[in-house]
Model the fold of this input.
Amino acid sequence: MNLSSKEKNSLKKSALKHVIPHFANNAELAKGAKIFTKGEGCYVYDIDGRKYFDSFATLLTTVCGHNRPEVTEAVKNQMELLEFFPNYVDTFTVPLIQLAEKLAELMPGELSVSFFVNSGSEANETAMKMARQYHVENGEPHRYKFIARKDSYHATTLGGGSVTGLTWFREYFEPLLPGCLFVSAARKRDCPENMSEKDYTRKLLSELEETIKFENPKTIAGMIMDPLPGSNTGYPLPPEGYLKGVRGICDKYGIVLIFDEVQTGFGKTGKWFFCEHYDVVPDIMTIGKGFTGGFIPLGATVTTPKIADVFRKGPGHEFRSGSTYGGHTTACAATIANLEIIKNEKLVENAAVTGRYLEDKLLKLQKKYKFIKEVSGIGLLWAVTLDTDKKLGIGGRIREWCWQNGMILRNNGDILVLAPSLIITEKEVDLMLGKIEGAFKFITGNIK
Ligand SMILES: Cc1ncc(COP(=O)(O)O)c(C=O)c1O
Done:
């Protein structure tokens, strides 16, 4: 982009004056707006022409990297033919149907009927509405409550915010939806030393079942959970048997089980979907982010014929939800192209193989730097938790050093997140870890 210094400065000023960024950080904004102008593979360029390796895959979206001619071509063709027609009442478009077919092929178990939306938040919002109306249609309108888990993030909306178990996202917006209950997050790493993993799983499942019984099972519509919690808590794996156990309890009490795979779907964990590692299939799965590869917003709430059929019984039973742009025609065309690339370039397999390489390197780094408390994750979703004095803000200083040295890094306090695009090579893993180590060396040499 050929912009003069004056034009660049004017854009930077306008950004601060005319835009409220999502989840804005005023301390960071005080240093100036960061403006991006170009992307290529795992890299992005800012308005001043500086190149950055993006270790957070553009907010966990760009599974096949930036600037893919195959997607550009698909988008251009669709734009020239029919850029948009809504999926409304009784109307469909060809890419939307083809995408729904592809999802039915890709998704585990009976998950084969899609409701398209514009984001992960909307996918979860829709899943909650779907579970509620499913029970209404089955003559159980009193099932309105949801069980969710502490520390999980599901949405920025008020409904999905009600099942988000992180206080920061909820506190200014209460009272939220009534009947949203929280049980413990289930993390293998939290298993007490004097307890076996089996017993720990049993304890968590009995807490869940007790909560259901106490509330009266006939009042519970659904359980919503991220089978692998996200970057906020460092991708902690569940204890063995937990997901199967949850599935069993939901079946026992007629509760709709919703898995939020917005962050973990589409290869990031080394399988198409995280739940496949444990052979457990939910009644509804929500998807977003990597689904569309970052090209054009799209999300989906995917369910089974058992649930979908209650909305297809005849007039008067239709699912009461919808939006103008949900399932946007060109977004569907871009997403089909994204899924083709994932398949053709074997990116799911690459996430598993390169993920193991990354894991190995991270464990070696942990041996070298005693302040690394934990390395956790799977596939190409990893978190490095530091054991440093929170007051020193080391995570933020590492992020800043990386930024100054050409790498975008996401940190949540002292948790550093490494979740690159699935096209990452071993050489780029080395580059990424080289930056992290560079930051460690700089920080340890400069802590006062
Ligand atoms: C697990 C999970 N669910 C849902 C969402 C919401 O998705 P979106 O930001 O596209 O609305 C996110 C976003 O970070 C997420 O990580």
In short: DSSP finds 15 helices and 15 strands in the chain.
